[in-house]
């Protein structure tokens, strides 16, 4: 069992009409002039953005709008947001959207007072010391960014297409307004990607060499099972409020570090997938589903009893009479079958629609390890050759 600090300061306002409290929450946390950050057209077409603006107008809170956040949020838009915040004297950021919008807000927050280039932070060459406070109106449950301190940004400048992360406790949202009704109209693909992402956030923490934190493991197992059962209901009936509420709350719990207390997280699958979505601009959840099974088969020998427990306690496999290796395979296959039932790909060919080239695998593995200067993973520490092999297994 590892020592741990659990810190989850975000104030959650959960339920119908939660977004109507945007102005009062901004005032509570000291905001007087807001950058209203959002994505494409869904927040506009649904009327949500207009409702939030009306709420701010009624409270006399000044704001500036910046839309255009895309999946795999771009550094170029982050730079634009930093410039606006500095020019307009912004003192609070409000993200209206999902994980990509919140991550973009976090990058703007990190760079607003930083004297150097914000990308330097994502290269892990420096750390900011002052940040703009952030709140969010969550519309897509998936990334868990509403309660985490992390952010992932894609560098789209000079055709680099590098996807890197940066984190700090100061980047945790002051508040998260979470109304499950805002997710009713999400396309099935986005819903499925979100369910996959929250399951993977839990699996990244669950597959560890630390086997003596029973309460954390039990919470993780229950969360995955709930994501699967409620996920099936949501896919069948997108307007099922109770199922949508369970999924929305699961997304937050999966990534606020609760399921990692006392254990050492792995995070190799996320790092491996980041290069896929950076190169091919695919949905993050789909990319995770495409490579997880190959990662699991490549690393399972490091802790076969954990994979056997996963098969039995999470996937409901009757492991009696099976060897640990056989049980692990049954559990991995069952998880892949669930992903496919959501419409997720479980190999790279299905993900990108063509055969991935050897040179593309090499390039992604090289970027994943910063030209062989770093490793990823904790269950099994992976270098470039290991990552290339996992990509090949997943191709």
> Gap between N and C termini, in Å?
36 Å
* Quaternary structure state of the chains depicted: single chain
Task: Specify the structural class.
Answer: alpha/beta
How are the strands of the biggest sheet laid out side by side? 1-8-5-4-2-3
Round the mean pLDDT to the nearest integer and report it: 96
Q: Please provide the ordered H/E string of secondary-structure elements.
A: EHEHHEHEHHEEEEHHHHHHHHHH
Radius of gyration: 20 Å
Name the beta content range: 5-15%
Helix count equals: 16
Total number of strands: 8
Summarize the biggest pleated sheet: 6 strands, parallel
Low-confidence stretches: none
**Helical content (DSSP H or I, runs of 4+):** 40-55%
Sum up the overall morphology in one term: globular
Describe this structure in words.
By secondary structure, this protein is α/β, with parallel strands linked by helices. The chain has 16 helices and eight strands. Strand 6 (150-155) and strand 7 (162-167) form a beta hairpin. The longest helix is centred in the middle third of the chain and has 23 residues, at 214-236.
